[in-house]
Amino acid sequence: MSHFFAFLSRMKFIQRWGLMRNTMPENIQEHSLQVAMIAHGLAAIRNTYFKGEIDAAKVAVLGMYHEIAEVFTGDLPTPVKYFNPQIKDIYKDIENMAQKNLYNMLPDELKNTYSNLLIRKDEDTELWRIVKAADKISAYLKCVEELKAGNQEFSVALKMIRQELDASNLPEVKYFMEIFAPSFSLSVDELNY
Fold it and tell me: What residue stretches are annotated with the HD domain (predicted)?
């Protein structure tokens, strides 16, 4: 018997943005799906417009799995996670242990299939850069949606995340932010036109 998928199903219970008032709560399962879709889109943009050769399907799957350690750790708020280098390093070690714990829950015959999703490999560094960018875009879009709902709690986070995205050296991020991100501030009626 393996508890692997039972643990993954608990992603829906891990709430994000724990230090902030949310008009619409977001769990890591919802977030991971959005990150996967954005990461896939970023890979497609790079391949289409910037002569990339990124495996968009693999990037999407990495996005689906990028938060799985949080079924053990919970979502540590960013100000805590990055409070100082020691906390950041310790938390990274805890995440790595959580990922290895999940990996060890798998039947031996499936471990090879899931190893690159649970244990980061050097050859996937560029794919993980895209997932990280998608994660930042997802956070930015959450801020946009909260501000659209009148929640000023996210105004500083929006500015800080936008600065990080504007400083990105990934051309697909700039493209996404210019072409796709503005629509998230529109109402459904405005989207229909």
Answer: 28-140
Check: pTM over 0.70? Answer yes or no.
yes
Q: Which contacts of 19-22 are long-range, i.e. CB under 8 A and separated by 24 or more positions? A: 19/77, 19/79, 20/153, 20/154, 20/157, 21/151, 21/153, 22/146, 22/151, 22/153
Closest CA to 36 of 6, 66, 76: 66
The answer to whether 2 and 106 are in contact (CB under 8 A) is yes
**122/50 Cα distance (integer angstroms):** 23
Res 92 pLDDT > 90: no
Residue 151: DSSP 8-state: -
The helix/strand count (H/E) of the chain reads as 11, 0
Please check the confidence at residue 86 and state whether its pLDDT lies above 90. no
Structural contact between residues 125 and 137, judged by C-beta atoms closer than 8 angstroms: no
Domains along the chain with CATH numbers: 4-187 (1.10.3210.10)
Q: Residue 27: what are its φ and ψ, rounded to 5°?
A: -100, 170
Cα radius of gyration (the chain): 17
Whether the pLDDT of residue 81 is over 90: the answer is no
pLDDT tens-digit map of 9-44: 999 999 999 889 999 999 999 999 999 999 999 999
Structure tokens at 75: 């979502």
